[in-house]
Amino acid sequence: MKKVALFTLIIALVYSCGSNNDRGELTGVKSKRKWFAEKPYGMVFIKGGSFTMGKQDEDPLGAMNAPTRTVTVQPFYMDETEITNSEYKQFVHWVRDSVIRTKLAYQAEFALGDEDLTGDGAKRAEGIQLYAFASKDTTNESPYQKYMRENYYEVGEGIDSIKPLNWEEELVWNKEDYPDEDYVEVMDSLYIKKDESLNGIRTFNTKLLNYRYFWFDNEEAARTGKNRKDFLKDETLNVYPDTTVWIKDFNYSYNDPMHQEYFAHKAFEDYPVVGISWHQARAFCHWRTKNKNSYQRSKKNLGLVPAFRLPTEAEWEYAARGGLDYAKYPWGGPSTTSDRGCFLANFKPVRGDYAADGALYTVEAVSYNPNGFGLYNMAGNVAEWTNTAYNQMSYYMGSTMNPNVENRENHRKIVRGGSWKDVAYFLEVGSRDWEYADTARSYIGFRTVQDYLGTKKQ
Description:
- GO terms for molecular function: formylglycine-generating oxidase activity.
- This is Gliding motility protein GldK.
- The chain is built from 10 helices and 12 strands.
- The strands form 4 sheets. The protein has a 4-stranded antiparallel sheet with strand order 1-4-12-7. It has a 4-stranded mixed sheet with strand order 10-9-8-11.
- Helix content is 25%, strand content 12%.
């Protein structure tokens, strides 16, 4: 009997030691980190709510594809402006540096041969060895690091390897300061050939700027319920803007300066990026999420942020209205000019007259007055990609709660807002237009959104 009592006491002590002093009450499982919604840099908070979506005025084109209906959207954050050349260039440079560091790391392995730079420190890293794959020093690695190195870091060959890159060593750009011949060989392979250069100036080969990323098709997985791996998508695409759109979009027109300088010259840094396909815009969203969460992980007390993405068509229209229901334009309406005769957006006011509003092409992303939500150029300047596929009947069959009629097989994607080369009709908040997802234009850009988690207290 004493043995049973002692055993019972031991069990009681074990369970009591494992408790959180909740006295047996239902207290829930609390996260160790407190969550608070941090407004992303360069974004504004859109409180969400219901509004009347669709064309609320005359429809001169007779499209009949946007009948009015009341819908509700959730709270979210949206970029204050269109994504600029400078912001997109940050993405391009990250991809460029990744490509360079990957090639340098493999060249370092090739040049190293059987020499050991890490074991007993017999040889000090120098030259291209400074750019070798990270985590080579195994003297003080944790069991987790050892397991990951042995089971993952050494898996794969060539560009498919997932060995960690070394981001600590600065890249050398001045040709006269290249550390050794191996470094010269790698850098030489990244620039266009001499016989392709103009005036002997060899520029970086933009065809090498490929970004590989994975994404999960949540919606299809939820509807079919198959194996998870069946919905893990792997995409690789070139991220450099198609600068030739300035020529291809306009026949018998001289736009060479825009073709040569719009993305490259610092004079256009704060102008909206163009020449971006829908697929490239989505890749940018993935990279922006990855870039932010890499920082969040480096700070142990910070949680991960929701993914950046393209807005749905309903979110875009709700944001464009700026809180003005039944408005024709983001500033209200019904005119495209103020009471003083000043144009309120960058578009084509008169046939053949692109400059009447003060600009021939695009203007800086922060131009004209913002709408009621603090968003710039929701009408004109550049049209903007949305996440929604175009369907003429989508307003009739879509949900009234966060509507988004999406179809992976439908390559026509909604663009909204009109652009610098469009007439006023396309500036109206209810006007719909579309373009193929793999097509880039000189008049289409984008801005991103991020979900707001929880409910904003009023």
